[in-house]
Amino acid sequence: xxxxxxxxxxxxxxxxxxxxxxxxxxxxxxxxxxxxxxxxxxxxxxxxxxxxxxxxxxxxxxxxxxxxxxxxxxxxxxxxxxxxxxxxxxxxxxxxxxxxxxxxxxxxxxxxxxxxxxxxxxxxxxxxxxxxxxxxxxxxxxxxxxxxxxxxxxxxxxxxxxxxxxxxxxxxxxxxxxxx
Length: 180
Prior knowledge:
- The protein is of the alpha/beta class.
- Helices cover 43% and strands 18% of the residues.
- The protein contains 5 helices and 7 strands, in the order αβββαβαβαββα.
- It has helices at 2-40, 81-96, 114-123, 137-141, 169-175; strands spanning 53-56, 59-62, 71-76, 101-105, 130-132, 149-153, 159-164.
- It has a 5-stranded mixed beta sheet with strand order 5-4-3-6-7, with helices on one face. A two-stranded antiparallel sheet has the order 1-2.
- Strand 3 (71-76), helix 2 (81-96) and strand 4 (101-105) form a beta-alpha-beta unit.
- The model has no long low-confidence stretch (mean pLDDT 86).
C-alpha cells in the first residue's frame, strides 16, 4: 500500500511539473504573439481608415475625398531604403490598375521637409500622386512604426489589406482583390 501511495504521489508531482511547464510555454507563446503584433504596429484589416488632411500641389486635400471606389495608400520617406526599392513596383501597379495609388510622404520625418522630397523625386520619379503629411498626423492616426506601410482601403473607407515593408506589383494586385 505504501508503494502505491509513493507511486501516486510521484505521478501527481510529475503531472504538476508537466502542467506547469505547459502553462509557461503557452504564456510565452502568447507574449511572443502580442509582442509581434505590437512590433508590426499600424491599423488592422477591418478598421476604419482615419481621414487625413494632406497637401497636394500646394492645396489641402482630405484623404476621404480622393476616391469613392477604393485606393491604395503608401506611407514613405525619402531616407527609407525599402521605400526606394518599392517605387518601381508601385509605378508598375499604378499603370496597370484602375485602383488609384497615393504615395503619402511623412514629411515631418524628412530632415529638410519638402525640399528633401523634391530632390528625391527628381532622382526617383513616380507615376502616381504624391501627398504630403506636413503635420505628421499619419504617424499617430495610422500608428506607423515602420515604413513603407501600405494600406488598401475599400469604397466604404475600411482597411481591407495592410502590409508593412516593401510591396511588389503582384502583391498589390492580390491585395486589391479584396475591394468589393
